Amino acid sequence: MSQSPPAESAVREVLQQFPDPETGRSIVQLGQVPQCRVEDGRIAVTLGLTTWSAPLWEETCQELTALLKEKYPAAEVAVERVVHQRKPEKLGEIGLAAKTVIAVGSGKGGVGKSSIAAYLALGLARSGAQVGLLDADLYGPSIPHLLGSDQRPVMLADRIQPIVAEGLRVLSMGLLVPPGEAVIWRGPMLHSALTQFLRDTDWGELDYLIVDLPPGTGDVALSLSQLVPATGAVVVCTPQELALLDAVKAVKMFRQVKVEVWGMVENMSFFLCPNCQTRHEIFGSGGARKKAAELGVPFLGEVPLVPELRAEADAGRVRAALDHPQVRPYLEAICRRLVKNLSERNRQNPQLPTLTVLK
Ligand SMILES: Nc1ncnc2c1ncn2[C@@H]1O[C@H](COP(=O)(O)OP(=O)(O)OP(=O)(O)O)[C@@H](O)[C@H]1O
Ligand SMILES: [Mg+2]
Predict the structure, then answer these.
(1) From the CA of 136, how far away is ligand 2's center (Å)?
(2) 137 Cβ below 6 A of ligand 1
(3) Which residue among 83, 112, 138 closes a domain?
(4) Which of 113, 141, 200, 324 has the fewest CB neighbours in a 10 Å radius?
(5) Is residue 51 domain-shared with residue 103, that is, in the same domain?
(6) Ligand 1 atom having least distance to the Cα of 314
(7) pLDDT tens profile 319-347
(8) Which parts of the chain have pLDDT scores under 50?
């Protein structure tokens, strides 16, 4: 701690130790401090952060401000954030340009996987990240319905162009086949359809690709893990004891196919009464958090059961959950915790600047 006016070189020394939330490496070494000035006892730092770390922008700036304040209590500290561009590496043999791929699955149908996949994608995109949403439920695609979109993806130079909806790049079998038409797939066809969706699609450069998995067996998860080695999973469950047993199975299934489980989300955790706005824990509480701890999986948070969310989703407005003042804080906290956990891991094991492959 120093009371005398800080020297610019000493401030740079402090910044040198501060990690970039995406890679865990020094912000100075990675060229993420375009400006650092000390004038009349005022420290002004411009901090470049990537869009991958968008959910952590605010807290990262606060952390840096607190660190400089701690070192130089007499100084006025101003941290200004700008966007630092960093392209994703191409992943696997299919060459998908995404920094992080998150598969959303569960052991049981109807627990809200597709809704949570959409909430995650929308939440990350709203905070400022570049996000794609792939509906890998080829038999029962529901993402187009949730987003209220019936746009058709076009082909350009033999490559599928995802549609853009709600700021997300989206691809789903539901956008390719007429609504209500049955699609019949055999196992190998599933794999090749998924390959096309990942390899032959112009996803552009993504921070996150969120993949909504179908209910049931691990076929798609296995294909995904083979095609995109850096994939991690989020397991969705509901609070009933039986559903928790299914969640345990899902975690084991992901582990079997070598997909690391990055977190568990408890959906329909409690009933949020639209009249009195109070919380009713119909199925008890804390079960998923406890189960996650037993399994050694991070618990990311809970989402309340709100009847109007179902009605809004049925009308193609899944985004209503993020606009709902009582629900939004839960969803934002889940997005933040997920990215924070990934960031912490990179801090423990700093990555090359262009990679966030979590292995
Ligand atoms: N937190 C919630 N509050 C109210 N309704 C919800 C909530 N989460 C999901 N739902 C509703 O529950 C139904 C099932 O959700 P969703 O389609 O997301 O589940 P799923 O696990 O993807 O199902 P499937 O196994 O068929 O793919 C939908 O009608 C959805 O709108
Ligand atoms: Mg679904």
Answers:
(1) 9
(2) yes
(3) 83
(4) 200
(5) no
(6) 31
(7) 999 999 999 999 999 999 999 999 999 98
(8) 354-359
Ligand 1 center to 110 CA (angstroms): 5
Distance CA 359, CA 111 (A): 28
Write down which residue in 21, 49, 83 finishes a domain.
83
CA of 141 to the centre of ligand 2 (A): 7
Assess whether the C-beta atom of 238 lies below 6 angstroms from ligand 1.
Answer: no
Residues 124 and 79 in one domain: no
Is 268 close to ligand 1, i.e. is its CB under 6 Å away? yes
Q: In total, how many domains does the chain have?
A: 2
By the CB criterion, residues less than 5 angstroms from ion ligand 2 are 113-114, 142
pTM for the complete prediction? Answer: 0.94
Biggest distance spanned by C-alpha atoms of the chain:
74
In the chain, beta strands by DSSP E: 35-39, 42-49, 76-83, 90-91, 96-105, 131-135, 155-156, 159-160, 163-165, 168-172, 206-212, 231-237, 260-272, 279-280, 299-305
Asked, for residue 315, whether it belongs to a domain, the answer is yes
Residues 111-151 have pLDDT tens digits of: 999 999 999 999 999 999 999 999 999 888 999 999 999 89
